Prior knowledge:
Helix content: 25-40%
Shape: globular
Strand content: 15-25%
Structural class: alpha/beta
Largest sheet: 5 strands, parallel
Bound molecules: flavin-adenine dinucleotide
Radius of gyration: 22 Å
Oligomer: single chain
Distance between the termini: 35 Å
Low-confidence stretches: 455-463
Order of helices and strands: EHEHHHEEEEEEEHEEEEEEEEEHHHHH
Mean pLDDT: 95
Amino acid sequence: MEKKRVAVIGAGPAGLSLLRAFQSAEEKGAEIPELVCFEKQLECGGLWNFSENTGVDEHGSMYRDLYVNGPKEVNEFVDYSFEEHFGKPVGSYPPRSVLLDYIKGRAKKFKLCERFVRYHTKVKSVTYSEETLKFTVTVRDYSTFDYNEGRLYSEQFDHLVVCTGHFSTPNVPEFKGLKTFKGSLLHAHDLRDVTDFKGKDVLLVGSGYSAEDIACQCYKFGSKSVTITYRSFPTGCSNWPESITEVPLLELVDSNGRTCHFKDGSSKDVDAIILCTGYLHDFPFMPKNLRLVTGHRMWTMGLYEGVVLETEPIVFYLGMQAQYYSFTMFDAQAWFVRDVIMGRLALPSIDEMKAHSEKWRQAEEDALAKRDVKTFQANYLKELIGFTDCPVTPEFVDKTLKMGSDWDKHKELDIMSYRDHPFRSAVTGSFAPKHHTPWMQQCDDSLESYLNLGEPTPKLLRI
Ligand code: FAD
């Protein structure tokens, strides 16, 4: 019998989790389907790759000097610890470059990319035939042909898993007078270097993680002031330094092109406006009936167990949720999807799947009311791993959940130094060393600087 074929779109952390899930089944003696992972970038690792390019065609929303905003231990791969990768324990809040190296390290150890990924290949469209029960995936391959033209080709698959992330299509709301603003106006998606705003008065629109982190960065790199304007709730941070203030929503940019007026009647002259207004789930390559439609939620309605498209349970989406857990959640999801595809797990009826999602949506609403979404996501992970042999264990989830409450306390204590606190690995038991430089003074985001490579060098990966 011919091997089944699975198309995976995207080789970011979520796509790589899926490849690893299948490869681990193979390691244990199972016969796995043929996997083809299409990745439009030149490397794996998704948005942890940095590019100076900006604009809607650019996938990444990554900026210089981004350090993880939660302890790395929460998202440590259970089958590939940071200590294994770097040859020693490393600090708990590394910069982007260190995370990318680590993600690539697991991919390299399990030979995921060379076996399964076709780089520089962008999925343009997907169709599904009810007659043949096959997906046709049409891609443009920029790797071998004329760089601008690319080679268009199609292949057929039995299963389709979308792992394209949801932090690359900016949500751009309108504000009265915004078009007449005379300073720099950009979405966080296009931010590359906060030092551009040194000495400047900056307005951040939005109060989520992006606004919080960009405010900290602006402060660190010498912006004169930062004003955060929020629609529903402020950031929740109670200890901003004096030069950072929060005000209700922007109502109007004055015709002088500089003065911003807010809902509480206050106003501020600013040099730059950064829209930290979130991202849209956007799957332009998918046909309408197979397209996930959702906002940024902890529970994604329409996806059974957060991954199976309920209306068409032949399509899977990974990593579409708002995230406390990222890499570890992707693993839990990947192992579940793998087992559905391999026929190890049977799906309930569509009505049962929908009822199940309603139950989780209610739990999400309750968690939002209690302001405890971390426990909600931890419970989701526990349910998922109960179905499979995923290496993430309930004990790991409990330990990493506790890290979340310590993280909150550190942030409450001092938003500018919470990244200086070390955590203990739930995988190896090792305590992270206190990093050699406090975050506020660390102005070099390279891997070499973070790892202080004057010492014997751990294995560094450039694949
Ligand atoms: P992505 O990383 O976005 O990867 C998706 C991949 O799909 C990309 O490689 C892309 O090129 C590819 N792709 C997209 N469309 C196509 C197509 N049509 N054809 C082929 N390939 C395609 N998480 C944390 O855990 N800690 C943090 O500190 C943290 N900080 C963040 C900071 C920022 C600024 C942002 C935006 C996100 C941050 N995140 C953080 C969350 C982040 O989303 C996850 O860590 C993770 O990268 C998501 O993985 P993913 O594979 O779902 O998506």
